[in-house]
Design a protein that fits this description.
Blueprint (H helix, E strand, L loop, with lengths): L3 H12 L16 E4 L2 E5 L12 H14 L14 H13 L4 E5 L2 H12 L5 E5 L4 H10 L2 E5 L4 H10 L5 E6 L11 H10 L3 E5 L34 E6 L9 E5 L1 H10 L1 H4 L6 H15 L2 H17 L6 E2 L6 E7 L1 H13 L2 E2 L2 E2 L9 E6 L6 H15 L1
Parallel strand pairs: 2-12, 4-5, 4-6, 6-7, 7-8
Antiparallel strand pairs: 1-2, 3-9, 8-9, 10-11, 11-14, 13-14
Helix pairs in contact: 2-10, 3-10, 4-5, 4-8, 6-7, 11-13
The chain binds pyridoxal-5'-phosphate (PLP).
Length: 393
């Protein structure tokens, strides 16, 4: 069988410093990871609040399995939709201030299903060039026309929207850009969507649980004073998506929006209709996780302190931290091999930070994607700062 071509392609990737491989953890997801018998201080997970190995959530999973068993056994539209799923959907919707919510197995599937259900041939999707790969795949799958605008370039988006006169218009964006850590200009995006009668799809994978009052996400950043509702984030045009495997520490995702949008997804989102429901026990854990998020102001305050500590500590390095105020703090290296070398040198010092290379990020912008978690201590962050300074000299 002719697999030699596949091997050649892998060899080429390897020569370019682009070959991907996996490292196997033999301990739970915490700030310290055991790999090949060695313990590493890790700065690469998206477990921003340190919930992935939380004792209360482990207990909730055990209790959920005792109550509901381990498998859903069917898709939601057959006989796989359980009370635990249903209740969690209502809690999630209320938490993010939307009338309804729908659970998906993963964020990747939520994006594929929602975009494909909302737009099709004759419609247009507008997308930031630095959007997550799942949003890029989603717009291709939808068969709508696709128009990508330069990262954060509202003038170009306005132009593209103005040129589009027929069909539905859907603007899709990361709220917090996953490889850069910067936040999308959501208010400006919403204003443009209102002006041009478009819908706004916000992927808040890295904001939910971390940003906004009580961790309600990016739509709750700087809300209006009490008594004025949710403010701008309350617009019915906004279709909100968040993942539950990052700050929430478990697995899954949800879309929250007007009821008619959710009903449309239930009827048309293939990645919802044609897949087995997640184990209902996971919804029991997620309901508990949602409580920890809501009560997690102290965790978020600690995380903010760590971010400030890291930025101050790395200000004078030859490599630059990208302008981010979120838990994603990428250190720009540029060259692929140089990024790999720096990551390997840190690993020798017992610190694990993943090097991110093209095509995940644009050519020439390979970086160390440092992520912080509320589970890190100030001493952990100091250790990273000291190691990077040693490697710079
Ligand atoms: C991680 C991520 C996803 C995918 O979510 P999963 O639950 O991991 O499939 C989608 N969008 C963005 C921006 C992400 O960072």
């Amino acid at each position: 069988m002719p697999f030699t071509q596949l091997q050649t392609e892998l060899d080429i990737r390897s020569a370019q410093g682009l070959l991907r491989s996996r490292r196997t953890l033999t301990s739970p997801q915490t700030t310290h990871a055991l790999v090949d018998g060695k313990l590493y201080l890790a700065f690469c997970s998206n477990d921003y609040l340190g919930l992935a190995n939380h004792a209360q959530l482990i207990a909730a999973l055990q209790q959920g399995a005792a109550q509901w068993g381990v498998g859903a056994g069917a898709a939601h539209l057959v006989n796989g939709h359980f009370g635990a799923h249903h209740q969690l959907e209502q809690q999630l919707a209320a938490f993010v201030g939307k009338p309804a919510a729908l659970l998906f197995s993963t964020g990747y599937m939520a994006n594929l299903g929602a975009v494909q259900a909302l737009v099709g041939k004759g419609d247009t999707v507008f997308a930031d060039k630095l959007n997550h790969a799942s949003l890029n795949d989603a717009m291709l799958l939808s068969r709508a026309e696709t128009k990508r605008y330069r990262h954060g370039d509202m003038a170009q988006l306005a132009q593209l929207l103005a040129q589009t006169t027929n069909g539905r218009k859907l603007v899709i964006t990361d709220a917090v850009f996953s490889m850069d850590g910067d936040i999308a200009p959501l208010r400006e995006l919403l204003a443009l969507c209102e002006q041009h009668d478009a819908w706004l799809y916000v992927d808040d994978a890295h904001g939910f649980g971390v940003l906004g009052e009580h961790g309600r996400g990016s739509l709750f950043e700087a809300p209006l004073p009490p008594g004025e509702g949710l403010g701008w984030g309350n617009s019915e045009r906004i279709i909100y998506m968040a993942t539950l495997g990052k700050a929430a520490g478990v697995s899954g995702a949800f879309v929250a929006a007007e009821q008619v949008v959710i009903d449309t997804l239930i009827n048309h989102a293939h990645s919802y209709v044609y897949t087995t429901a997640t184990p209902p026990a996971l919804s029991v854990v997620l309901a508990q996780s949602l409580q920890l998020i809501a009560q997690g102001d102290a965790l978020r305050a600690h995380l903010q302190q760590l971010i400030a500590q890291l930025r101050a500590g790395l200000a004078d390095l030859p490599w630059q931290l990208m302008p981010s105020h979120t838990a994603i703090q990428p250190l720009l290296v540029g060259d692929n091999q140089a990024a790999l070398k720096l990551s390997a040198a840190l690993r020798e010092r017992g610190i694990w930070v993943a090097a991110i290379r093209p095509p995940t990020v644009p050519q020439g912008t390979a970086r160390l994607r440092i992520t912080l978690s509320a589970a890190h201590s100030a001493a952990d962050v100091d250790q990273l700062i000291v190691a990077l300074h040693e490697l710079a000299h």
